[in-house]
Amino acid sequence: MASYQLEFSKQFHEDLKKIPPTQVIRIVAALEKLRENPTGPNTRKLVDWENGYRLRVGSYRVLYSIHNLKLVVFVAQAGHRRDIYR
Question: What is the pTM of this model?
């Protein structure tokens, strides 16, 4: 299986500044695993977002989309589960 490239939005970078450093480390480690399998464990397809998925990392969620033709995972947002879907 080919390896996907990760691309990050400006919003994602801003979101990381609001998350505790220990959780950021866990999120980055989980994102690295998406390179090999973007629909792996702890992921779910989002109903209202075409090609959209969410990754669960403890109490935090990462929203991303998969572009299979380009082999790109575009990471859009990250945040606590109580806030991310608002």
Answer: 0.93
